[in-house]
Write a structure and sequence with these properties.
The complex is a heterodimer.
Chain A: E1 4-7, E2 10-13, E3 19-25, E4 32-38, E5 45-51, E6 57-58, E7 67-73, E8 76-81, E9 90-97, E10 110-114
Parallel strand pairs in A: 2-10
Antiparallel strand pairs in A: 1-3, 3-8, 4-5, 4-9, 5-6, 7-8, 9-10
Chain B: E1 3-7, E2 10-14, E3 19-26, E4 30-38, E5 45-50, E6 56-59, E7 62-66, E8 70-75, E9 84-92, E10 103-104, E11 108-113
Classes of the chains: A mainly beta, B mainly beta.
């Protein structure tokens, strides 16, 4: 139980374009979704927290207009990287909240490469 | 500020050579300490949650322990398939103003050679 499906797993896009990453909770309702980015040999850095039906809360230093987060339903949260630049290339991972017994389940991650 | 420090950064073992990974933490009030395994290009896979000092949990060749300042992940007779990065994370108690947020360490990259 408590599976989070994240898509796409890999994406390559051109500078200036936008990319949408989806995270779906398949067998439970995720009232909260956490979005992280991870650089090589670095820890997971929390970018923002989304709650179903309300605005996302962004961590200090994360640009709200660049990383758009939508949590329109209890089973779907999306992260859109707008006007992507090469420095946005990273590994993006979502984590569902509210399911403590499963250790807060993570998605499988999205490798974004901006060329 | 809540902090998590993992050591060593990297560890190479021979198959069957037991060892331990360390996770030192400072948190205003511990709600839970989590261990995850992460394979390259994948999201973290949950291993254990520990809630109070003295607690221990086991899963196959892995055993996690917790004190008031640190946690250890003991690996007994590891196999090559145990090779991965092991992440530690802490969650602060809601009584201390914490939420569901997890603070992660940088991880220990374990390589087990056959």
């Amino acid at each position: 139980g408590a599976v989070v499906s994240q898509h796409p797993s890999r994406v390559i896009c051109k500078s200036g374009t936008s990319v949408k990453i989806e995270c779906r909770s398949l067998d439970f309702q995720a009232t909260t979704m956490f979005w992280y980015r991870q650089f090589p040999k670095q820890s997971l850095m929390l970018m923002a927290t989304s709650n179903e039906g309300s605005k996302a809360t962004y961590e200090q230093g994360v640009e709200k207009d660049k990383f758009l987060i939508n949590h329109a339903s209890l089973t779907l949260s999306t992260l859109t990287v707008t006007s992507a630049h090469p420095e946005d290339s990273s590994f993006y991972i979502c984590r569902a909240g509210g399911v403590a017994r499963y250790g807060y389940t993570f998605g499988s991650g999205t490798r974004l490469t901006v060329v | 500020e809540d902090q998590v420090t993992q050591s060593p950064e990297a560890l190479r073992l021979q198959e069957g050579e037991s060892s331990s990974l360390n996770c030192s933490y400072t948190v205003s009030g511990l709600r839970g300490l989590f261990w995850y395994r992460q394979d390259p290009g994948k999201g973290p896979e949950f291993l254990f949650t520990l809630y109070s000092a003295g607690e221990e949990k086991e899963k196959e060749r892995l055993k996690a322990t917790l004190t008031k300042k640190e946690s250890f992940l003991h690996i007994t007779a590891p196999k090559p398939e145990d090779s991965a990065t092991y992440l530690c994370a802490v969650q602060a108690s809601p009584l201390q103003g914490g939420s569901e947020k997890l603070v992660f360490g940088k991880g220990t990259k374990l390589t087990v050679n056959p």
